[in-house]
Amino acid sequence: MKNPKILVPIDFSELSESALKTANVFTQRFQGTVTPFHAYIPVTDLDGFYYVGSGITPHEKYGEIEKVLRQRLQETAEKYIGQDYLTGQLLDIGNPARAITYNSGDFDMVVMSTHGRTGFSRFIMGSVTAKVLRMCSKPMITVTEDSNPGDLTSILLTTDFSENSFRAFPFANSIAEITGGKIDLVHIISYEQYFDVRAVDRTAKKREEEIRELADHHFANIRDQVNARVVIGNRAPHVEIAALAEENQYELVVMSAVGRSGLEYLMMGSTTSYVVRTVRNAVFTVNPKGLSNESARELHFQNRNH
Q1: Contact at 8 Å (CB) between 281 and 272?
Q2: What does the pLDDT look like over 281-305, one tens digit per residue?
Q3: In this structure, which CATH number among 2.40.50.140, 3.40.50.300, 3.30.830.10, 3.40.50.620 belongs to the domain 5-137+300-304?
Q4: What values do phi and psi take at 139, rounded to 5?
Q5: What is the pTM of this model?
Q6: CATH class (in words) of the domain with range 154-286
Q7: Using one digit for the tens of pLDDT, what is the confidence trace for 176-195?
Q8: What letter does residue 13 receive in the DSSP assignment?
Q9: Where are the domains of the chain?
Q10: Strand partners for 9
Q11: Can you give the pLDDT at residue 299?
Q12: CA dihedral for 38, 42, 43, 49, sign (positive or negative)
């Protein structure tokens, strides 16, 4: 996590600019750099509406459009990021989700808002952010306008004991090691998953021992900063995780984008997608099944050529 190169896609809405605030926290804590990014499709009739206030119309030449967009990207980023931490601006043409996924290959992480230009994208699984979460192989941080990452010293880390969930552990470890923060390593057991209450008790006892072993193994260097526990609830695991995040006001929720089934984004009720869509907290996701850089490149240029 030291000196991360951070890509921040924005669409110039105030909601999307929330990502720059969180990116700034990471640059300060980890001496990273930020590159603001925007993807656009200039042939659409909507561009004139999108860029109202920029002096851009759908009939402008591409060169003029890019000049104005670069200037606006720089001005927007400078409202939140010090010039010493900015590394220019990045523009691309084409489908935004694919453009972000492709361009993320040169960066260590992507920070995006769950709300976009309309303000409704948080509730639409087909939104740009949801697509990038599904495709991008780089770690992502999703935020809302209410997210408060603070000093990144209060972290909720979830596990379902799958190898996929373990992929998020090193990132949580690195963040807590640098910030001195506390990690709540949590496994959820829901009564609705069992027909027998006694089975819940037996499973919980076993999982409590296993989660302590996980903490000992994966967080030996900061073991005193990690509280490993099992939470038993009446609601589905994804609802319990979202409730924990909200109730305890964690500054960061860290989780894998793919769990035990490996099919997270094929189900509307998937744990990670539900948490990202519903909580106000900043959510750090690691997708072990994201597109490779080569696949992202192929998809992106196919899209641009059509």
Answers
A1: no
A2: 999 999 887 656 666 566 555 555 5
A3: 3.40.50.620
A4: -55, 145
A5: 0.85
A6: alpha beta
A7: 999 999 999 999 998 877 77
A8: S
A9: 5-137+300-304, 154-286
A10: 37
A11: 56
A12: positive
